[in-house]
Amino acid sequence: KESAATIVEMLKDVTSYEGEDAVFECRLSQETTQDAQWFLGDVPLQSNEMNEIRVQGAHHTLILRKVTLEDCGPISFKVGQHTSAA
Questions:
Q1: Per the annotation, which location comes first and is thus the protein's main one (predicted)?
Q2: In what order do the strands lie in the sheet with 51-56?
């Protein structure tokens, strides 16, 4: 049975100007098949033309493209029982 991954590098707060990209990065203790999910407020984010979600091994990255004032708010990353927010 796979042991649960923990978050070893937490999210950092990011300040962006309108029209810029905002990049959030998180590192887990191990590569995992567990569901990892990004949220803006309570809304789960998917990879699309506005958001890019990347996973490289245990390194998870969220890129919010050309942010607007509507994108302002708490970003969180959840895997298993663990959460990090910025």
A1: cytoplasm
A2: 7-9, 22-28, 59-64, 51-56
Give 40-72 pLDDT, tens digit per residue. 999 999 999 999 999 999 999 999 999 999 888
CA dist., res. 75 & res. 14, Å (int): 10
Q: What is the DSSP string of 40-74?
A: ETTEEP--SSSEEEEEETTEEEEEE-S--GGG-S-
Question: 7-80: which CATH architecture?
Answer: Sandwich (2.60)
- 24 and 62 Cβ atoms separated by less than 8 Å: yes
Residue 27 is encoded by which pair of tokens?
């590192």
Distances (CA, A) of 4 to 29, 30, 55: 9, 9, 17
